[in-house]
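Researcher: Before we compare anything, I want clean individual predictions. No alignment, no superposition, just each chain on its own. First chain goes here; please echo the sequence and then give the structure tokens.
Model: Echoing the first chain and its structure:
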Amino acid sequence: MSDAHDGPAGRGSGADDAASRDAGARRTGALLVIAAAALWSTGGVGVKVADAAPLVVAGLRSVFALAFMLVVMTVQLRGQPRALAVIAALLRRPLVWGAAASYALMVVMFVLAARRTTAANAIFIQYTAPIYVALLSGPLLGEKPARSDLFATGACVVGMALTFGGELGGGRAAGNLLAVLSSFGFAGLPLLLRVDQKRLDPETAARAPLVAMSLGNALAAAVALPAMIAEPPSGPAAGRTLVVLILLGTLQIGLPYVFYGVAVRRLRALESSLLATIEPVLSPIWVLLATGEQPSAMAAAGGAVIVAAVVLQTIGKRRR
């Protein structure tokens, strides 16, 4: 009799343990995504307080981010003899270079935009990128856009119109346009990697994002090199500016991608995407607390519409 009872009890206990481990993994994943999004959200305030020319800020931030990512890549390569061959193969792929150029466009234009408009506008407009990915997935990946994609696109257009309309009198239109360019880069990075992923084996595809972002940081630093040589941080605030830029490169770009890479293996795509949307919500709050900068009421309403559109589109894609 005891054997008959021990069997089901053992199986039940094993199932409970597995469920408990799964719940624990998801909680850890959720905390990591929240931490990553919170760190990403500090980019706006860092760009605002760094006392250097915008291109210098963009270039030095990418230099420190590249150094961090190379350290991460070196740790990952230990004991994996094929890893160097995989990276060399990725560096010969045009679409990886295209993704890297998109990343460089994103990080450089974001800094230029944040210096010419509010940090809130820069991040809200940049966050329209998932809509472009949805629309371009049709011709590039054969994924037909759904009704939710089209609805979200229309909502983002309305949100951008509100954002631009609220800033026309404040001299911030040029910054908003630079943020649009940043959003194109934000969309191009995952889209080009997804196109190339269909032609790669799993091991190579898994390394492509970190290789593309490392290469993108190198390209951004190369673009900004003349400015970094001509106008390095100087004066009494030079030390503080360098500390800010080191923190931006390591903690605002490098570490969050490590967190996010670990987290997405533990969460559903919908959960990770929705948790990440706290980035555009937190970013203007940090800037407001640090500098007192705030967008106009109309621009803030436009940003809220954009974030809501991205959230609803993400939910719609999950339901499909």
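Researcher: Okay. Second chain, same rules.
Model: Second chain and its structure:
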Amino acid sequence: MDGSRRVGLNDLVYGVYERRLYQQIPPERRPRHVGVILDGNRRWASMQGTSSSAGHRAGAAKIVEFLGWCDEAGVEVVTLWLLSTDNLNRPPDELESLMTIIEDTVTGLVEQARWRLHPVGALDLLPAHTSRLLKEAEEATAEIEGSLVNVAVGYGGRREVVDAVRALLHDHATQGTSLDELAQLLEPEHIAEHLYTKGQPDPDLVIRTSGEQRLSGFLMWQSAHSEFYFCEAYWPDFRHVDFLRALRAYADRQRRFGA
């Protein structure tokens, strides 16, 4: 069998497997909100014998394809962790390259005009032009009827909780509430109302690529009752079948919400 016929047969088998996977995921058991830790870009680049920057660009190129898969599956909210607060400590040259890739990625998503973008993270820690671009992206896509995409840049779970508490204290200070009064009335939902994702459903499913089995603080508050799926593939190699396997694993689980 020559190479072209072999490729054609492989594509046919792959397509059949995809359809079978999709049929195993009942619509009523699909997640509304999917969070993704896009991990493994640098290790993918190392295996390819190329630069870290090339790995990050390969990972960025996967995002539009992934969001299309989410649309097909009826996912309403997607949170993409593109850059952590820890990543802000990388060498200046590498960080500048990362910011450029993120800015190009966000600009590309705006041009797609398919999704509403919402930046989540400590924007005050980012370069001014990056922060401004993220805010402008949110404004430019606010009226789009597509799904909501949280773009997590300069994001850290601990920092988010600190920012939420700080905002909560500020709001009550302006209302004249004393600390003693606040201590008496404080409930978890009061903090939730000040998170970066306020008003959104918590993630049902969190996916991390590259084989790492930890959350690293991603959506630390919101993921208390989430289901987790860890995939061995590096993010640039993450395939549609990998996504469908994650959805199938989610659909097969009996969610107990902490019980």
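Researcher: What stands out in the second chain?
Model: The longest strand covers residues 77-84. Additionally, The two ends are 55 Å apart (CA to CA).
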